[in-house]
Amino acid sequence: MQSLIKRLTQGSLVLQILIGIIAGIALASFNPAWAKSVALLGDLFVSALKAVAPVLVFILVASSIANQKPGQHTHMKPIVGLYLIGTFAAALTAVVLSFAFPTTLVLVTDQSTLSPPEGIGEVLHNLLFQVVDNPVNALMTGNFIGILAWGIALGLALHRASDATKQVFHDVSFGITQIVKVVIRFAPLGIFGLVSNTLATTGFGALLGYSHLLAVLLSAMAIIALVVNPLIVFVKTRENPYPLVLRCLRESGVTAFFTRSSAANVPVNLDLCKRLNLHEDTYSVSIPLGATINMGGAAITITVLTLAAVHTLGIEVDLATALLLSIVSAVSACGASGVAGGSLLLIPLACSLFGIDNSVAMQVVAVGYIIGVLQDSAETALNSSTDVVFTAAADKAASRKA
User: Fold this and answer.
1) Which of 70, 105, 208, 255 has the fewest C-beta atoms lying within 10 Å of its C-beta?
2) Of 245 and 330, more confident
3) Is the confidence at residue 209, as pLDDT, over 70?
4) Mean pLDDT over residues 251-269, rounded?
5) pLDDT tier at 114, thresholds 50, 70, 90
């Protein structure tokens, strides 16, 4: 028994997750009723990640900044630059694929009752108010922009505190990190529950009617993950990017795909950065920041679905408008987490560039919810894994120059 427990707790987490995925598919195929009954495992795992992530980020950021040595650099400027370049490149790739393989929709009649933002100003307004959110409320609601702002502020305030005070924050940070490691070890069981329930509840039959739309969406995300991101990493590091990119997709993207939550995947990414031997002062800030502004997958979703509506209505689009759509999608994607409903509710904003009525745009949003079982999963996997890819690339580039 002790040997079995040791093997489970110290064995390959990726292999165990793969076994969980296969077991979930098998259970959903042979007994959907039982598959739905194990949904509790998935719900508990996602809830545990969401519960520990805000506290972990707040303490880790505050501790890292408070304990930062004079002259130590965090390389945040190049990381933010990579985030913005990657998001814009994703939107541009989506535009190219949407014109190469135009998609038309049979718009549904049921319209969502959710309210999309009325413009870029509202998106930025929401982001600014997230920054000045009450710290307790930010922790309770998982507002990572607010958590990051308060963590940085507290870290700077404690930068000149006594060594004993700094050590307390360091010890608390270590303790929470240990809790996160325990939660992550339950990932195979959690993903087993998520896969079983998803397949038993929705299946993939409803997605067949939108196979062309999904093919364009997933192809754009695959190109970003396997071509564009590696190219950006190569330019930054002058090294073969694929060992890093594939490891991040395997160890971050897989869990993000099934949890469908960038916030829930923050602890997973922080743990991966630690195992990649990156500087804690850098990744403790860049990972939660990336979970908010590094949204290449969201930019693809907004662009592809908007242009699908454009093609359905027979609207002509010139090059300048397509480029403007890429910019709007990239900026909107950076604020996706600040709007209820995420990237899908920013589609009406992009549709307004082409004069598409809001009632029609909201039907496109409804289509997005139908394909969300794959679209949202792939989007989150791309967003979350890219956070680690770009953080590691900037860290490696800085180490090479040193």
Assistant:
1) 70
2) 245
3) no
4) 85
5) very low
What would the mean pLDDT of 323-328 be, rounded to a whole number? 83
Q: Is the dihedral of CA 157, 162, 163, 165 positive or negative?
A: negative
The first and second tokens of residue 150, run together, are: 């308060």
Q: Which residues contact 156 (CB under 8 A, 6 or more apart)?
A: 65
Q: Nearest-CA neighbor of 241 among 396, 28, 20?
A: 396
Give Cβ neighbours of residue 136 (< 8 Å, ≥ 6 apart). none
How far apart CA 213 and CA 347 sit, in angstroms, is 15
Tokens 């509790």 -> residue: 40
What is the mean predicted confidence (pLDDT) over 42-60? 82
DSSP H helical ranges for 224-314 = 229-237, 242-248, 254-259, 262-275, 280-293, 296-312
Mark 113-149 as b/e (b = at least 16 C-beta within 10 Å).
eeebbeeeeebbebbeebeebebeebbeebbbbbbbb
75-110: b or e for each residue (b if 16 or more CB lie within 10 Å)? beebbbebbebbbbbbbbbbbebbeeeebebebeee
Sole residue written with tokens 């390389």: 75
Each residue's pLDDT tens digit, 24-39? 888 888 888 888 888 8
